[in-house]
Amino acid sequence: MYASREDIGYDFGDDSKVGSKPIKPNPNIDGGWAWMIVLSSFLVHILIMGSQMALGILNMEWLEEFNQSRGLTAWVSSLSMGITLIVGPFTGLFISMCGCRTTAILGGILNALGWILSAYASNVHYLFLTFGVTAGIGSGMVYLPAVVMVGQYFQKRRALAQGLSTTGTGFGAFLMTALMKYLCTEFGWRNAMFIQGAISLNLCVCGALMRPLTPKDLCEKYVVRSDSEENRAKALSHSTETIKSNGVLGEEPENKEEVANEEVLVSVQHIEIGGKSGSGRSMYGLRLFKTVSQLTVTVRKGFALWYSSYFGAASLFTNRVFVAFIIWALFAYSSFVIPFIHLPEIVKQYNLSRQDNVFPLTSIIAIVHIFGKVILGIISDLPCISTWNVFLMANFTLVACILTLPLMQTYVGLAVVCALIGFSSGYFSLMPVVTEDLVGTEHLANAYGIIICANGISALFGPPFAGWIYDITQKYDFSFYIAGLLYMVGIIFLLIQPCIQKKQPREKSTEEAQV
């Protein structure tokens, strides 16, 4: 079902002892409240990613309003998309300390504030701060928890669950494009952004649905996985073992720190019990001290986990395939974002506005994108299919479409290529699955935060780069060619690194035999 040992070049140990003790399955794993988590994540994708895919409408309004170059104006959309993803590692810190629910609710408030403040923009630079930075950070604080929570609640049907939840991007792009066109036509772009800010407050409701799993629930999840799908468990646990062998998941210092923290809390409780005979004021002070101590312990544990994942001995960067995955992400996302931002302008240049008004090309990408995510998720869940191979094939298809798009100058030709772009980009639903296969569920939040941060850098520079190329050449052709070639470089890194990983265990075993 998932990326196999041979696919990503890993060597697995024996995990047969895992899950030998029968434990009653948790009804919320792969069922029950897990589907509410999928619904919450689906709505988050509609409100955040869908809205960002409709920014091409606002981009044209900003060009007319502020009369700035295409390259400069495109920075507004790029900042919003890029920062949403770039803040992933820092959102991982918030999740480690506060949990997914609190992080998502705070992000929803910040996102809505960014949209509302942008309605009063007097120039493009004002939008950089309010829409690009403020709304972007808020979006990032909701997006990562939405993805992580689905990964925590599902084991057997992770690819399908992630596929269903991320179809919100396609639905959102279709719905928000139509809504944004209507609002801009009827009320103007300023009032449209104000209304969108009010709609974005629903992100707080989505965050409230993200009920956290207890450590006991997570333990039961792994036991059920091991009992029912032992081979798959070996594949998933391998990367964790590999990291452990390199000193990645060094838990001894962390355990010592936990013991020290528990001792502090126990001492506080003893003081509280001993001081019950004291005055009410001193008891209030003790309770306040206990609350502060518990908060301090939570913050220290969260920061320690976050820091060790990125910078300490437990660095995720010791996993070479994961590093190749990061390099791929640096080039990949811009190839998907550039068409959404600049297609409305390309259609206008080719005098295809009449056909595009009937059925916009961006809506074609969005609709087919929905089916692509679901179908690729179902295919990846088949026992005989490797998620890794499906992921790579979809990437190759998307690269071919990006390189072909400039050659199409008719509406039908553009529509066919856009449909293929929408379907092949459905691999986005597989990214959390592939990431979890590489690093394990415990490090999914931090690892996926790094991946979407790399995607954010790609989204940040892609559309302005395309606009800058147009300002020089008066054509978008070279923008797509360069983006496609850079994307191909990222895919080559994904292909090369597993081959290197395969050779290393063999070389190591040969050396041991000689010794």
TrEMBL record:
Main location: membrane
PROSITE patterns cross-referenced by the UniProt entry: MFS (PS50850)
Database matches in SUPFAM superfamilies: MFS general substrate transporter
Subcellular location: Membrane
Domain of life according to the entry: Eukaryota
Domain Major facilitator superfamily (MFS) profile: 37-502
This protein's name: MOT14 protein
Gene field: Slc16a14
